[in-house]
Write a structure and sequence with these properties.
The structure holds 2 protein chains of 2 kinds. By secondary structure, chain A is mainly α. Chain A is built from 14 helices and no strands. Chain B is built from 10 helices and 10 strands. In chain B, the strands form 2 sheets. Chain B has a 6-stranded mixed sheet, sandwiched between helices. Chain B has a 4-stranded antiparallel sheet with strand order 2-1-4-5, covered by helices on one side. The chains are: A mainly alpha, B alpha/beta.
Chain lengths: 290, 249
C-alpha cells in the first residue's frame, strides 16, 4: 500500500511512456502551424486577393474571354475522359492485386505508384518519344493523319499517366482490410460475379472509391508538367486551365491569371471537403465490420 | 443428399492443406469435422462448398450421384455459414436473408410478396421475428449467427456447411446453440457438416465425427466408436484418451 502511494506521488498525472515533454509538444505544434500558415494558407489568400484586386468587373470579364472559356472546357473534357478511365483501371488494379495471388503481384503494386515518384515532365516526355513526329510511331501516325502530340489525345494520355495511382491506392488498403468473406458468402448464395460487384463490393468500397476519384479529378484538372510537354500551348486549342494561367501571367495579365487560378483553388478546397467527408465515411465503414 | 469426396489434395503454395482425402457422408447426417487449427478441416469444408478446388483431376466431389467437382460455389448451392458470419453489413436483416432470392435470374425470381413471406418464415425459424429492419452491427453475436443461418437456408439447400459455427460466441451461448443446432438439424433433415476444434462440441452434437490432422483423415466414426477404439496416437492424444487421463476423469 505504501509503495503504491509513493508511486502516485512521484508522477502526479498518468503519463504514457511515449509522450514527449510539454515544451517539445508546443514547439512542434507551433512549427507545424507556422509552416501551414506561411506556405499553404497565405498563398491561398493571395490568390483570391490578387484575383479581385482590380475589382469584380475584371474578375468576371476574365470568364467572358473565349480563350479562358475554351481552357476551362478543355480541362473539363480531359478530366471527363481521364477520371472515368482511371476509375475503371484503378478498380481493376485494386481488384486483381487484392483478390488474386499471381507471380509479379508485388511488382504490380509498386508499378501502380510509379507516376507518383516520376517527374510529371517525364510522364509527358515518354508520350512525345512514342507518338511524337520523331518518335517510334511518329511516321506511321503521320501517314494516317492522326495527331496525338500537340493535340488533345496526347494531353489525355499524359493526364491518364499522372492520375493513374489515385483510385487504386485509395482502394487497395481498404479492400485488403475488408477481406472477401462477404463476397464468398454472396457466391454461396448464388450471386454471379457481376451481382457480387454491384451489390456487395461496391457498397463496401464506395467511400474509398469516392476518395480516390476526387483526388484523381483534382490532379487531372490541376496537372501542369506532363500536359505542358505534350500540349504545344496552342491558345483556343490545346490550352488547359493551368497552362492558360501561365500564359496570362507571362503576358502580365496578372488579375486574369489569378482569377483563373482562384477557380482552381476553389476546386482544391471543394476537393478537400469531399475528400475529408469520404475519408471519414470510409473509416466508419471499416469500423462497422463486426 | 449424400456427399462423397474422392482423393482430394489441396496445397496453398507449398503448404499441403489436404492430402489425399476421401470420405463419404450419408444423406441427413450431422457430421463434425474435428481437428486442431491448421489441420485442413476448414479447407475440406470449403472444397465441399466450391470455395476451393482440388489441385488435380484425381480429386473429385459428388453431391448424391452428381459430380460437382468443377462447379463454382454459386452453382453448387450448398448453404454455408461462415465463422464470423460474413453478414452484409450495409444491408438490414431482411435484405441479408432476401439476398439469395433477389439474385435469382428474373425468370426464377419470386415476386416481392413471396420474398417477404419467405424471409418472415425463415426469421421465425431462427426465432428472430421483428428484427427485419436491424443492421448486423445492431445485433448480438448469437443473433448474427442465427441471421447467417437463415440467410444460408434461403437458397433451400440440401447441404448445410458450418465453419466453426459457435467459435466466436461465449461459453453459455455456445451450449444453448449446440442443443438448438441438434434440434434444428432434426427438423430440417438436411445433410449438415460443421467444422470445430472443440471435441466436446463435436461429440455432443454430431452423429459421426471425422478427425483430421495434418491434412489427412485420422479416423471416422460415431462419438462412441472413436472414444472406445481410437485409431492412432493422434486421436488418443487429441481427445485426451490416454490411460492416465481416463482414470483421472
Amino acid at each position: 500500500m505504501a509503495g503504491a502511494s509513493t508511486i502516485r506521488l512521484e508522477s502526479q498525472r498518468p503519463r504514457k511512456a511515449t509522450s514527449d515533454p510539454l515544451a517539445i509538444k508546443m514547439v512542434l505544434t507551433t512549427v507545424t502551424f507556422l509552416f501551414f500558415a506561411l506556405f499553404l494558407f497565405l498563398p491561398l489568400v493571395v490568390v483570391f486577393q490578387e484575383a479581385f484586386e482590380k475589382g469584380v468587373g475584371v474578375f468576371l470579364a476574365t470568364f467572358r474571354d473565349p480563350f479562358t472559356l475554351h481552357a476551362i472546357g478543355l480541362t473539363l473534357l480531359i478530366a471527363g475522359i481521364a477520371v472515368p478511365m482511371n476509375t475503371a483501371f484503378g478498380l481493376a488494379a485494386a481488384w486483381s492485386v487484392t483478390r488474386y495471388r499471381f507471380p509479379g503481384r508485388s511488382f504490380l503494386i509498386t508499378l501502380i505508384d510509379l507516376p507518383l515518384w516520376v517527374s510529371p515532365v517525364i510522364g509527358g516526355l515518354i508520350y512525345v518519344l512514342v507518338f511524337g513526329a520523331q518518335g517510334w510511331l511518329g511516321p506511321w501516325l503521320r501517314e494516317h493523319d492522326i495527331r496525338i502530340i500537340f493535340a488533345v489525345p496526347g494531353m489525355v494520355l499524359a493526364t491518364l499517366f499522372v492520375t493513374f495511382p489515385f483510385v487504386a491506392r485509395g482502394l487497395i488498403p481498404l479492400m485488403q482490410a475488408q477481406g472477401m468473406k462477404e463476397e464468398e458468402a454472396a457466391l454461396t448464395l448464388g450471386a454471379n460475379g457481376w451481382q457480387i460487384f454491384w451489390r456487395i463490393t461496391l457498397p463496401k468500397i464506395k467511400w474509398g472509391l469516392l476518395y480516390g476519384v476526387i483526388l484523381c479529378n483534382a490532379r487531372a484538372m490541376g496537372e501542369f508538367g506532363a500536359v505542358s510537354v505534350v500540349s504545344g500551348h496552342i491558345r483556343g486549342q490545346t490550352n488547359t486551365m493551368p497552362l492558360h494561367i501561365e500564359i496570362l501571367y507571362n503576358e502580365y495579365q496578372v488579375a486574369a491569371a489569378f482569377a483563373v487560378a482562384s477557380l482552381l483553388a476553389l476546386l482544391a478546397l471543394l476537393t478537400l471537403l469531399i475528400k475529408s467527408y469520404a475519408e471519414w465515411r470510409a473509416e466508419q465503414q471499416l469500423k462497422n465490420i463486426p | 443428399m449424400s456427399i462423397r469426396i474422392e482423393t482430394v489434395t489441396k496445397h496453398f503454395g507449398r503448404y499441403p492443406a489436404l492430402n489425399n482425402v476421401s470420405t463419404e457422408i450419408e444423406s441427413g447426417e450431422l457430421i463434425a469435422l474435428l481437428g486442431p487449427s491448421g489441420s485442413g478441416k476448414t479447407t475440406l469444408l470449403r472444397v465441399i462448398a466450391g470455395l476451393e478446388f482440388p489441385d488435380s483431376a484425381d480429386g473429385r466431389v459428388f453431391f448424391g450421384d452428381r459430380e460437382v467437382t468443377n462447379l463454382s460455389a454459386y452453382k453448387r448451392r450448398a448453404g454455408f455459414v461462415f465463422q464470423h458470419y460474413a453478414l452484409f453489413n450495409h444491408m438490414n436483416v431482411f435484405e441479408n436473408i432476401a439476398f439469395a432470392l433477389r439474385v435469382l435470374p428474373r425468370s426464377k425470381r419470386p415476386p416481392e410478396s413471396a420474398i417477404r413471406d419467405r424471409v418472415e418464415t425463415l426469421l421465425g425459424a431462427v426465432q428472430l421475428d421483428g428484427y427485419e429492419r436491424r443492421l448486423p452491427s445492431q445485433l448480438s453475436g448469437g443473433q448474427r449467427q442465427r441471421v447467417a443461418f437463415a440467410r444460408a437456408l434461403a437458397i433451400e439447400p440440401e447441404v448445410l456447411l458450418l465453419d466453426e459455427p459457435f467459435g466466436a460466441l461465449d461459453a453459455k451461448v455456445r451450449k444453448e446453440l449446440r442443443r438448438w443446432l441438434r434440434d434444428f438439424h432434426q427438423r430440417l433433415g438436411l445433410t449438415t457438416i460443421f467444422v470445430t476444434h472443440d471435441q466436446e462440441e463435436a461429440f455432443e452434437v454430431a452423429d459421426r465425427v471425422v478427425l483430421i490432422d495434418k491434412g489427412t483423415i485420422q479416423q471416422t466414426g460415431t462419438p462412441a466408436e472413436v472414444r472406445q477404439s481410437p485409431a492412432n496416437t493422434f486421436v488418443t492424444e487429441f481427445l485426451d484418451l490416454t490411460p492416465e487421463a481416463v482414470t483421472r476423469g
